Amino acid sequence: MKKTTENLYRERMLSVLLHIQSHLDSELDSDTLAEMTFFSPVHFHRIFKGMMGETVIEHIRRIRLERAAHRLAANAANVTTTAFDAGYETVESFSRAFKNNFGCPPSKYRKRHWDTLTERFPELVHYRPDKVHDCVRLAEKETDMEVRIEEVDAMRVAFVRKTGPYNECGEAWSKLCSWAGPRGLLRMGAKYIGVGHDDPQVTPPDKIRYDACVTVDETINGEGEIGIQTVGGGEYAVTIHKGPYENLEATYAELMGKWLPRSGRQIGGNPCFEMYLNDPDSTPPDELLTGIYISLA
């Protein structure tokens, strides 16, 4: 089972890599790539980053640059043509990106052997005109992340939805706590939960949806901006993230891109959610504890 699941993830990622390399001159739509793997867009991007070591957007940009480098090294095109073929609107922007990636401007690149790139970044999949990698490497070092499988009861929560960048979710929490506090709902034993519905890698910042939630009982009803919904219910993979909230995405990537393919389990249909285990107002950022819950089928 474990090996079969791992191979399934490899095959799905390989199909994406093949499509990307074969369609570098096309618009590579993230939702279309996600559909190829049968993962939801949010799950796909986190799994891709965990398995490949970079986001899908970073991968596409880098592969296009590596193709450009190959063409320059082979004297197959001049810098201007290569810049436009790589998707850059100006030679200047292409030259900056090229220098950042290869350590020298494209005009001087022909004097260097391009394969030194694979020596600098051996962990990444690279562009090759003659072949595409016939396998997708999972991380050579298995993750030492501590993960438990937990049966999570469905939780009734009051929530406020914030649409906008995740780093602005404090507004939703302020509204929720201002409503819940006078009603005695911020009590001992209440659980504070965040549900992020979108991936900031692909969803425009002003369209990202986040629900700030607190558990409530059946006697509480929503009103105005306060809604009621159910979170959880079923089996989840759970790990604890320690540190600032802005680093949560790296933990998601490791859990979904390294642990999950080797676990023998599949992603379930329920949204991922976060459970905040200490108070960000009185806890240093490096000491913050957040439970990350991934639904399992």
From TrEMBL:
Record's keyword terms, sorted: DNA-binding, Transcription, Transcription regulation
All copies of domain HTH araC/xylS-type, residue ranges: 14-112
Coiled-coil parts of chain: none
Top-level taxon of origin: Bacteria
Protein biosynthesis keyword on record: no
A Pfam family matched in the record: GyrI-like
Stated name of the protein: AraC family transcriptional regulator
Organism for this UniProt entry: Pseudodesulfovibrio portus
Lineage: Bacteria, Pseudomonadati, Thermodesulfobacteriota, Desulfovibrionia, Desulfovibrionales
